[in-house]
Amino acid sequence: MAAAEAGRREAAALLLSAGADVDAHDRLGRTALDVAEASHQAEIVRVLREKGAIGSGKSPGDTVCVLKWSGRGFCGPIERVDAGRFLVRIERVEGCESGCVADADCSGGETITGPAASVGRSVLVRNSCLARTYPGSGRAAGR
């Protein structure tokens, strides 16, 4: 992960050739692919993907669900990752047709309402709010 973050392609390649697990998680649940993508290390991302890395499901393009309100909430792709927060574009609203109460951590204090009012909006959420993730989903044929 340190090699991925620093863009040390040779070190990353050496570790991978020695059998390093491409999808190993650190104590925060991040993988080398997550770290490389967040650090804008395109060459490392390419090498990891060639080795089959799919990441933790918390990388740009992956689909996540934020179900903070008694199993109700929203799902959509991650647009950007910034310091432990995820910018999620709402594609699907689950069980909030009459509105889910605003939550400062999980929706920036914005109330999530039915699909007509919420789909297409982008909301910044914390890692702890992600109830489900779909690794590689943004790059797979079907989400």
Account of the 3D structure:
It is a single chain. Strand 1 (about 65-70) and strand 2 (about 70-80) form a beta hairpin. Helix 3 (about 30-40) runs antiparallel to helix 4. The protein has two domains: about 1-50, Ankyrin repeat-containing domain (Serine Threonine Protein Phosphatase 5, Tetratricopeptide repeat); about 65-140, no CATH class. Mean pLDDT is about 80; it is low at about 140-143. Strands 1, 2, 3, 4, 5 and 6 form a six-stranded antiparallel β-sheet that branches. It contains six helices and six strands, in the order ααααββββααββ. It starts with a helix and ends in a 9-residue tail after the last strand. It has about 140 residues and is of the alpha+beta class.
| Residues in helices, as a percent range | 25-40%
> What general outline do the C-alpha atoms trace?
elongated
Instruction: Pick out the low-confidence regions.
Output: 139-143
Average pLDDT: 80
Number of domains: 2
Number of helices: 6
Largest sheet: 6 strands, antiparallel
Structural class: alpha+beta
Radius of gyration: 16 Å
The helix/strand series, from N terminus to C terminus, equals HHHHEEEEHHEE
Alpha-carbon distance between the two ends? 27 Å
Beta content comes to: 25-35%
Number of strands: 6
Task: Provide key terms for this protein.
143 residues, alpha+beta, Serine Threonine Protein Phosphatase 5, Tetratricopeptide repeat, 2 domains, six-stranded antiparallel sheet, elongated
